[in-house]
Description:
Largest sheet: 9 strands, mixed
Amino acid sequence: MSRLVIISNRLPITVNRSDGELHYHPSAGGLATGLNSLDESYHKIWIGWPGQDITNEWEREAIKNDLMKRGLVPVFLTEREIDLYYEGFSNKTIWPHFHYFTEYTTYNDEMWAAYQEVNFKFFQAVEEHLRDDDMVWVHDYQLMLLPAMIRDKFPQISIGFFLHIPFPSYEVFRILPWRKEILDGILGSDQVGFHTFGYMRHFLSAAYRITGYEHELGRLSIDDRLVNVDVFPMGIDYEKYANPDVDAQTDRSSGEIRKLHASRKIILSVDRLDYTKGIPHRIRAFGAFIRNNPEYIGKVNLIMIVVPSRSNVDQYQSLKTEVDVLVSQVNSEYSTFDWMPIHYYYRSVNFAALTTLYKEADIALITPLRDGMNLVAKEYVAAKEDTKRGVLILSEMAGAVYELNDGALTVNPQSSRDIQQALVEALQMPLEEQEQRLLQMQEKLRQYDVKHWAATFIKEQQKLQQKNKMHHTTHLSGEALDAVAESYEQADKRLLFVDYDGTLMDFDPDPQAVSPDDEVLNVLAKLAADPQNTVVINSGRDKTTLQKWLGHLPVHMAAEHGVWMKEDGKWALNPNVVDDWKPKVRELLENLVSRTPGSFIEEKDYSLAWHYRNIDRDLGSKRVREFRDMLSYLIQNQDLQVLEGNKVVEIKNAGVNKGKATQYFVGKRKWDFILGIGDDSTDEDIFRALPDWGVSVKVGKGRTAARYSLYGVAEVRNMFSRLAHSTQKA
C-alpha cells in the first residue's frame, strides 16, 4: 500500500506531563484537518517534534510507542536545539526576513549551524521509516534543507514541499547569507507549493538568479527530474466555522458578546502577537477613525483578540508594550462613562466564543503588514453562513486577498486613511450588498476548502511522479555501459551521430576558442578508422569551421543543423534552404547587440545565431522574449525556425534540423547499431529520429527523450574510448 510521509516541525499532537503521567492533546490546526481528510488509500505517517523537551530515555520510548499506534513519529529536540533552531534561526532569521522585516533579522552562524543539525536530525528520523514507494510531503520554513537531504539518500522518491509563509522578492532574499543552501534544499523536492502566484514568482526568480535553473511555465529541469512549482492556496475547514459544533448558548463569553452586540456595532480583529500583523497601525487608524468620525462615539467597539506568541523574543516583548500603550491612549482619550472604544484581550479564547465573535461582528478588520495567507479572514466569512451580514476589511498584503478581493474591502495596511475610509464604507454598507459580497466569497471558500487544498497538492504530485518515471534516464555507466559496449562489439554495421559543442568539447564564451584537442581528435580517428563504423558529426556549427577542425578525418558531417551535408568527402547544400531573409534578421540582431553588451552575432552560411552567454541571465531572457516578438512580425509567411540552445538563439530554415539529417543517414542502409549523443534541446531531434532500439545519450542535466545520460564531456570521451578500445581488443 502506498504511504504518505508527512513531515512538519510540530506533530498534530502535543505531549504534556501531568501528575507524573504523559498526556496527549490533539492540535486543532488547519494542516492537521486537511491532511487527515486525504484519500484513505494512503496510509499516513507523520514525523515531527512533540512539543516538549523530553530527556528521560524511558519517557522517550514510551512516547514513541504510544505515538506509533497513531501513525506518529516523534523527533526529540534538546533545549539548545529549540533555542537555536526554532526560536533562533527559524523565528529570528527566516520569519522576519521572509516577511520583509530585515531590520529584525538576525544573521548568526551558530543559529544557522543548529538549523542544519536539526534538519539532519529530522532526516535521520525520516530515513529510519522511509520506503522506496513512499510519497513525502515536507512542510514550512523550519525544514527547508530537508528535501535535498532526502533526495541525496533516496533519489527516486517523490518529495513535495509547501511553504506556509511568504517567499520574498529576489532583492530581499539575496541578502540572506545562506540563500543558495536554502534554495538547493527546497529544490530537492519534486513539487514546491506556495499560497500565491507572487510568492511562486519570487521563488522562481531567486532559483534562476542564484542557482541558474530556468523554468518553463513554472517547471524546472534539475538533473533528470522535472520540478513543479505551483500555487495551492490553503483553505479552511468550512463546515467547522459555518456550522460550529458548540453550545454557544451556555458559554458565558458568548452571552456577553451577544449582549454587547445588541447595543453597538462590533469591529473584530483576531491575531497572534506578531509584528507582521500590523496591530499598532490598526489601533492608530481606529483612533483616527473615532477622532474624524465623532458620530460613531458610543456606537462601535473594536474587539481585539491578541494571542500571546514568542514572549521570550525581544521584538515581541516590545510589541506587547507598544500595543498596551496604544490601546490605553485611545481608550483614555475617547472613552465615555458608559462606553470604551477598544476591548482588548491578550489571550486566546475558546472555540465557542471565537465563533460567536465571528457570527456577531459587523466588521472583521484584518490588516496584516505581510501575511502568507491569513485564515482568520476565511473563518470570519464562513461563520456568516446563516446571517449573511458582515463586512470583511482585508489587507492587500495578506495572501487571502487574491481569493477574497471580489467580496472584501481591500486596504493598504500602512495607510490610516485607507482603513478609516473602509470602516466608514463598511458601517454604511446596505445589507443587500453585504449579502452579495459574502455569497461570492463563501462560494469560493466552500469549494476550495482545506480538504481540496491537500487533495490537489497530492494529486498534482502523483501526476508529476508518473511523468518523472516516464522520463527517467539511466546513467551510462556500470552494467548499462557494459550492455551498450557488448551490443557495439557484436554489430557489423554501426552508425554514430555525435554533437560537438557541449558533447566533445566544453563550452567557451568565444565559440571559436573550442577547437578540438588531441584527445578528441584521437578518439574520433579511432572510431572512424574502424571499417564497421560510420561516424556523423551532427552539429550546429558552420561548415567552414567544421571542415577546418575535423575535415581531415574520415567522418561525415551535418553542419548548421543539416543545412550542409558532407558525405564521402564532399559537401552538398540542402535543397530546401534559402538566405534572402538574412539581411533583415541581421539588422534586428545588430540592434539587439547594440543594446546588450556582452552578446554577439555568429553568422553561418544559411543561419544566424545570437549568443548571450556573457550577460545577466534575466536580461538575456528579456531580450530573447523581445527578439521573438519582433521576429514573429518580421519573418511572417517565411519558412524559418527559431532554435534555442544553451544561451544561444539561432534562426534558420524550418525544413532543416538535426533530426532530418539523422533520418537521412539512418535511411541509407540497414544498421545493426545506432548511437546518437548530444547536450542541448536541438539534439532532442536526433534522439527522436533514432529507431526505438537505438542508443540515445543526453550529456548534462535536463529532461530528455534520450534513454541514457552522461554527466559531461569527460564521460563522453571515456565512453567513446571504451567503445573504440573494445573493438580493437576484439
